[in-house]
Amino acid sequence: MAKRxxxxxxxxxxxxxxxxVNRALGSVIKRQSFILGKETxxxxxxxxxxxxxxYGVGVNSGTDALFLALKAMGVKEGDEVITTPFxxxxxxxxxxQAGARPVFVDIxxxxxxxxxxxxxxxxxxxxxxxxxxxxxxLCSDMNNISRVAREKGLLVLEDCAQAIGSLxxxxxxxxxxxxxxxxxxxxxxxxxxxxxxxxxTGNRRIYDKVRLLRNHGSRISYYHEIIGYNxxxxxxxxxxxxxxxxxxxxxxxxxxxxxxxxxxYLAEFPIQLPEIPRGCKHTFHLYVARSxxxxxxxxxxxxxxxxSRCYYPIPLHLQKCFKYLxxxxxxxxxxxxxxxxxxxIPVYPELTKRDILFIRDSIKEFFRIEGRN
Length: 373
Ligand SMILES: *Cc1c(COP(=O)(O)O)cnc(C)c1O
Description:
This protein has helices at residues 10-31, 38-51, 62-72, 89-97, 116-122, 142-152, 204-214, 235-265, 294-303, 333-341, 353-370; strands spanning 55-59, 80-83, 101-104, 127-133, 155-159, 167-168, 171-172, 179-183, 197-201, 218-220, 223-224, 280-281, 287-290, 342-345. Helix content is 41%, strand content 14%. It is globular and about 70 Å long.
């Protein structure tokens, strides 16, 4: 059954842009030109400009953007990539796909991003890249991450799957590392009509290598310089995304307004609300609050028709697929604790003030029934 307040309302979003999007799709269909070319190139330029980087390469997905960026950075068998255990699986999957070993570092309990003070201790002679995830739309502490990377001779890859448009000290997410991966999965803040992703970078060599890798290692048809992959963003997706990018700032602004309203309406309850460090623009892909009663709050909100979930219930070092890495419970206490206590509240741009008041009333009812401690 459709929820009264879903996690995201793409039907509403589509109704706002329908005529533009349909026209753009019609034009691709009319020309019957689907793979590489006009729309993809235009969208790559537009996105790179938006992110404050020189280059953009459209690829199949955010996961492939991470994977191909790591390959282009020269990551290979025997290398280590330092990252957070508190993220979507794709972050660490891409590291393994590139032949390397994920080395996890615990998170800061307030920002939920990698604790930069712990990174240095995780560096070994095999370390190659720090993969910084900007979780929920809040940038990682890039000053400290960049400093460690510089001192230790490592590259930095930003996972911007949840953070397109976010700012850190005036700098765009995606413009601070050696390269960055963006996801256009439909539910992301800039989503397409299927799967899609992009690598943005200011580094000509990384750009060139990702371009080769995504298209069978070839620059000119049927001449193959390296073994590559089939991982291209197609023109149908690029046409949709090109339109949506025009609306992104407006949609992000509404997310931030909704998050600000939630922060003020929920301040009276005994839950930890999202905090925004100084100098950061949080774009709230997810509005995540925290309580020891998270499980019961989620169930209660779901019973009221509010889509609330836990992102993410099992930190990566405790996932079955990563058993071989040899981590155990207790290795990353902050990530483990957060995974039991976080819950999200809908914050999508089309959410109304009435919806937000309904959310507030539901949480009020929860604490009236449950008691406050
Ligand atoms: C969504 C997501 C990805 C993967 O993106 P896809 O386009 O679904 O492959 C990677 N990292 C994070 C943090 C994500 O949220």
